[in-house]
Amino acid sequence: MLRDKNFAYLNFDSQQLLDAWDANLVMRMLDDVYPGYDYLLLDEVQNLDAWDLWVSELYMQGKNLVITGSNAKMLSSEMATVLTGKYLQVEMLPFSLEELFDWNKLDLHHLMPEQGAECKVLTDDYLRNGGYPEVVASRQLVRSYLDILFDSIVWKDVAKRHNVRNITDLNNLAVYLVSNFCNPLSANELAEELGLSSVNTTKKYMDYLHEPYLFYYLSRYNNKLKLMKKAPRKVYVVDNGFVAAKAFSVTENLGRLLENQVFIELVRRGYDTEKTMFYYRSRNDKEVDFVLRQGTHIQRLVQVCYDMGSPKTEKREVDAIVECAGELKCDNLTIVTYDDERTIEKDGYKINIVPIAKF
Questions:
Q1: Cα 274 to chain center, whole Å?
Q2: CA–CA separation, 289 vs 304, rounded Å?
Q3: Looking at residue 76, what is its pLDDT?
Q4: Are the beta carbons of 98 and 110 closer than 8 angstroms?
Q5: What is the average pLDDT score of the chain?
Q6: What is the pLDDT of residues 331-343, one digit of tens each?
Q7: How far is Cα 3 from Cα 308, in angstroms, rounded to an integer?
């Protein structure tokens, strides 16, 4: 955004700066170091106490500001309080599959036949290792870099920001969530399973872990809001690489990795886990992974299945999406697979089977 622009830069990841904070002195120093700057870039601004009031003052003085922060609360409630209607929010996620292909100088939408093998390698690599730019460039760093990044988010962005005293419980919960990604979990179950002090503490910790974009929670769709709030929520992690780095797992679950990848892609497209994206369970306990809504209208049902090669698996997945489609009155049905592509017709419904690269 600021390429070729004259901008000043201040990084709030510096403890020295935070300990000796003096707003007037800082502004004088910026004028000395970056004379005549047009924009001011404030990096990880949420680390500064009462940052929102200071930013509001700068705005009133007519400064052009670009501010970054890895915290969802900071970018919604805190920003809205001081700068209502005066800012534009851009949410950045790790690389998508398309961006990973761009990085490797390939166009995901226009692949040559001879690029088929390379496409498979990259798709498989992304499924297992995710899209953090730092590790895309050197895949041997995935586990060590993301292991450290995960811990630093839990310690710095959660424990320190919220003054969490029982860091062991918080850390145990974070590792449990990443190990059980794509599963429906309730705060009651988690509190009991992990021996946490109370259900309220568990809910609080879960919210804290969502704030720095580490975990997302998907509600079960129901027309009655009260019932929707009571049902267990499914847990997703912001990047598949964290699963490789942190999850306690005996076997590699490619189906869940693919489901997590589809979820993050839907978040990237602007679907909101509070308003426009849910999972659904039918009266006969058949499940569809994603119910996508537009206003009050159900726009699309998306099911994820890594491999539909066996007739038994195909029947299970197709029966589930068709039954849910009947109850939700939706006829736009998609099953995302690793590399299967065709159309299936069942009970008057047409189901598009789409490989992840095309999805």
A1: 14
A2: 7
A3: 64
A4: no
A5: 91
A6: 999 999 999 999 9
A7: 46
Place of tokens 């879960």: 206
Query: Degrees (nearest 5) of the Cα angle 106, 111, 114?
Result: 100
- The burial class, CB within 10 Å (0-12 / 13-18 / 19+), for 103 is middle
What residue has token string 């929520």? 233
Mean pLDDT of 275-295: 95
* DSSP per-residue codes, 220-284: BP-SSHHHHHHSPEEEEES-HHHHHHH---SS--HHHHHHHHHHHHHHHTT--TTTTEEEEE-TT
Q: How far apart are CA 290 and CA 288, in angstroms?
A: 6
Contact 92, 108 (CB under 8 A): no
Over residues 158-185, the pLDDT tens digits come to 998 889 999 999 999 999 999 999 999 9
Q: Residue 121: which residues within 8 A CB-CB, separation 6 or more?
A: none
* pLDDT computed for residue 187 by the predictor: 93
pLDDT of 75 reads 60
Query: What are the residues whose beta carbons fall under 8 Å from the beta carbon of 275, sequence distance 6 or more?
Result: 293
Q: How many helices (H) and strands (E) does the chain have?
A: 15, 12
137: pLDDT strictly greater than 80: yes
Measured at the CA of 269, the angle between CA 337 and CA 148, to 5 degrees, comes to 80
Closest by CA to 241, choosing from 122, 131, 120, is 131
Say if CB 229 and CB 130 are below 8 A apart. Answer: no
